[in-house]
Design brief:
This protein has six helices and no strands. It has about 110 residues and is mostly helical.
Length: about 110
Amino acid sequence: MPEPTSKRLVFLQRMTADGSQDPMAFYSLAMEYRGLGRHDEALQTFTSLRSSYPDYVAMYLMCGQMLEKLERFEDARSWYEAGIVKARATGNGHAASELEAALGASGSRA
């Protein structure tokens, strides 16, 4: 019997392959890959999401955190910094403060 995450992954892959214009579908796919430890696919999906929907600010924190866990600190900081810019531009103060906290914490790593 397949694991629930496997069914979820197949569903999300199908949903995004069918031309979905919903950024949440792509974000969910990236997060599913991340949760499964498929980091290259997660990063590719986050990067595609960033290209298509740059104002979807939640991705910046999640991708940055994943990159930090992979000890890719410079890449993580780059995602955090870009996210802060987008969060401020879209008036999302909560996301901006979360990203600023993550950026501050990442400064102590490397």
